[in-house]
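yo, Phasin is done. seq:
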Amino acid sequence: MSKAAKSAETIEFPTFDPSQATDQFRSLAEKGLEQSKEAYAKFKAGAEEAQKTLETSFETIKKAGDEVSLKTIAAMRANAEAGFSHLEALVGAKSLSEVIELQTSFVRKNVDMAVDQAKEIQAVSSKAVEDVSKPVKTAFDKAMQDLKVA
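structure:
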């Protein structure tokens, strides 16, 4: 025999045992199924958490919008009342110098009132932004922490 024939005769191939292959396939399938269940559970929990966060954010946005709207309406009402009071005072003025004095005083008071109203609306708006961003930031931080753990 030639060298090639001798080496071909000495090579041994492992025997194929169908019972072991079935057990290995079943084990692999069960492991894959378990990993899929775990991944689904994590995804579901994350989706539920995101939904709760969004619901909380939308409720907060609505409340904040209501507060800003109420402050704006109160400011408009105060401005309208000040304007009508000023007109009544102007109608009762007896001289041009009194009209100028009333107008100057009205403008000063109006500017002060506008600054105060702007500060109030800014404070409510800042609080609203903070309240709205808080649940989102908390959820994001939790998600990042969960990713670090995994």
